[in-house]
Amino acid sequence: MPHxxxxxxxxxxxxxxxxxxxxxxxxxxAVYGEWARGTVVVLLFGLPPHRWGMGGIQAQAPGPxxxxxxxESVFTRPDASQIIARxxxxxxxxxxxxxxxxxxxxxxxxxxxxxxxxxxIGGTLVAD
Length: 128
Known about the structure:
Layout: E1 3-9, H1 10-13, H2 17-32, E2 41-47, E3 53-54, E4 57-58, E5 65-71, H3 80-99, E6 108-114, E7 120-121, E8 124-125
Parallel strand pairs: 1-2, 5-6
Antiparallel strand pairs: 1-5, 3-4, 7-8
Helix pairs in contact: 2-3
């Protein structure tokens, strides 16, 4: 189950939420295939500029930051480097298309692995 948490300035997100959710879902489907559509979870976190710091000071114009949680097994596949590169590119494209091309150079995508047996829904571990 791909989980994308997007942290961006509230001013960048305002009014673009629906488009961004749709674009990010399409980005995952472009890499994984149609079967993944119903499993994509997108969370949007809008922050005021004074609550985002870099280098010990308030950031002036930070780009969006995406934490993309995926199964650890993706990283051990023979084609892992291609999949990871495609996911990062597609997610960045989705952000730029929804929030503006000016954010592309500062968008960060971090892919984080969830080991098998480390996810539970409703209190029950999900089988991998």
